[in-house]
Structures are given as C-alpha cells and as structure tokens.
Amino acid sequence: MGQHAAPAPDGLDGATRTLLELARTAAAAAAAVTPAPLLPDGAVAAMAALAGAGLAANTEAARASDWAGFTRWCATGGHVPLPAHPLLVRWYVTAKAAEVKPDGSPAYAPATLTRWVATINAAHTAVGLPRPGRDEGVTQALSAIRRVRAAPPRRRAPLLTDDVRALLTAARTNAHGGGWAARVAERRDSCLLLFGLAGALRRSELVGLTVADVTPSRADGLVLTLRRSKTDQQAAGRTVTLPYGIHPETCPVCAHVRWREVLDAHTAAGRPGVIRLQGPRSGCRCCGRCTAPAPSATPPSPVRRSPTWCAAAPPRPGSAPSWSPGSGGTACGSGSSPRPSATGPAPRP
Fold this sequence. Notes:
Shape: elongated
Number of helices: 10
Strand content: under 5%
Mean pLDDT: 73
C-alpha cells in the first residue's frame, strides 16, 4: 500500500491550511484601510487642473457643461453630487433618458448620456474617489438605452465642389460691392474654404494654420503642416498636400496667391498698401504655374503667425516675399493669362 501524508497537527491537510492562510491574509488586508495622506492646501485643485490640461479645449468645455448639469439636477432633488452613489447616477441616466422633445422624440441621444457618465467618472477620479459609473447597474442601464434607441447614425451631406463654387461666387459678389475691408475678408475666407475642400480639413485645423505652415511645392501645389489636430493631441504633426485645381476660381493655390498678396502688401506698405491692392484688378488671381516656375520655398518664419492680414510674415533681407504679385501670377480673364499646360502633374479639381 502507498504511503499517506501525515495529517496536520490541527487536523487540516496541507491544501486546506494554505487556503485558510490566504483567507486570513485577505481579511487582514481588507481590514487595514490606509488613511488618505494629508495634502497641502490647493493640492486637489492643482491635480484637477493638471488632469484637465491633457484635454482638448472643446472636451474640457463639454465636461464642464455636463458636470454643471449633473450638479443642478442633484441640487433640485437634494442629492450630493460628489461623491455620487452609483444608484444616484443610475437614476440620473434613467430620468434623462425618459425626457422627450415637444415632437415626442428623445431629448438626449445614448451617446450624450454615455458622455455624461464619463464626465461624472472623471470628476470623481480627479479627487481620488471611485468612479460610480463603473458600477454594473449603471453600465447595464446605458446598454439597455443603446439597445432600445438603436438607430443608424445621422450623416451630414458634405459640401461638394459646386457648392463651394456657389459660396465663393456669392462671397466675391458681395465683396465687390463693399469696401476694401470686405474684399480682404473675402480673400481670407476663400483661401480657408478651398484649403478645407482640397485637404478635407477640420475647422480647428484650418484656424490653427500659420503662414509658416504653408509651403509651396513645385510638383504638388502646396504642402500644409498640421502641428496638432483632434486625432493628434500629442502634436506629432502631419503634412497634407493641396494639388493644383483645374479652374482658378476653385484652385487652392490661386486662393493662397491672392491671400499672400494681401500679407505681402501689408508687410511692404502697411494699411495703405493693402488698400491700394484692392483696385480694379483685384479679382481672381492665377497661380502662374503654366507661365513661370513655381516660387521658391522660403524658409519658415521663426515666429509662428496667425493667417490674418494684419500679422504678415516679416520681409527677409535680400529676397522678395514668396507668392508676391510679381512672382508669375497674372490676372485671370484678362486675355493675357494662358491656361495651365499639359506638362507636369495633371491638375485636379
């Protein structure tokens, strides 16, 4: 017969003894609650500010609005928003999901309710409290709302080339009857619209562009450097190429030529130079790709400047400003401006 292990002195075998020791250790760890450290004054506010610095401005604004709505709802019912009990968060989501608009449709989409719970969680995390939205009851409530409200996403119709052409025509018509400031604003707006159309750029990416971020390219038209975007919060940066267009009215390079004329005129002569630029021949300008070599790419300005006519890049000694009126551009529709030739890369709409 085989040999059997001798029983433990207390009558328990080795496996049972091990399980008992683990249970005692876990109970002791649960009973030993580590007290929170004493932090200096303003430490909690500083940690919350640091956590908010990692968010985009729009995200931070949305969270502030969401948290304000939750605190108002809690104040109405006499509840404490921080710390919030998971049952309170679950009831908040359920109550808001039941609200409807005058036409009977739900007042809030499932994505909005999910964002609210994420905001409540973030507010608790910022001060070292457990996240009530992680409770199983809250997650089940959100899952049920998404299942009941299941619907295909609503997609917005994009602006096509014809739509942008109609916008540009209306803007240029209105600017023609206005003063010089209206014509300057039309050049700026046309440039941004065509940049957005050709590069599929977001509004935040357009307004973040500076003069130094736009580089002429002999073969490709323009190369934009996007230093930060919605999907690039760490500012790794990326480049976007804007090709030449077929028609000067919708060519992003031509629009850039017209806008740089304003910047260069302001650099050379200030406001009077900008006013003189808005003369009878201030209509559409051609990029001159077919009649002259593309302007040489000047080094980026050491100071990042906003693309506004009153903040032009400073002139560089011994060199003419890039994309200046004398760099090969000619007035379109005057009879002396030839169409783009077949040499080089094919123009694109």
